[in-house]
Amino acid sequence: MFTPDNDNVLLTIDELCQQLFISSTTAYRLLQSGEITAFKLGTWKIPARSVREYIKKRCGQQIK
User: Which residue from 8, 40, 54, 60 lies 20 to 30 Å from 15 (Cα-Cα)?
Assistant: First the structure.
């Protein structure tokens, strides 16, 4: 799995699904619930930082 280190990188729904090995339904649920912080400007924009924070929280470990 590749998660960009640059905090300025914005991911798409498809990229989020590929990185987390989840369906688009699960991805939308994570975004709408706020578990992964994102914003909608036409389409969903997901900061790579938000994905790293989500993984860190789920793993209970520090990920660099």
Answer: 60
First to last CA, the chain: 14
Gap between the Cα atoms of 6 and 10, Å rounded = 9
C-alpha angle 7/9/12, rounded to 5°? 135
Strand partners, 47: 10
Q: Measure the CA–CA gap between 16 and 48, rounded to whole angstroms.
A: 9
- For residue 51, tell me if it sits in a domain: yes
Q: Is 22 domain-assigned? A: yes
Structurally, the chain folds into a number of domains equal to 1
**H or E segment at 25?**
helix 24-33
* Helix/strand/coil for 18: helix
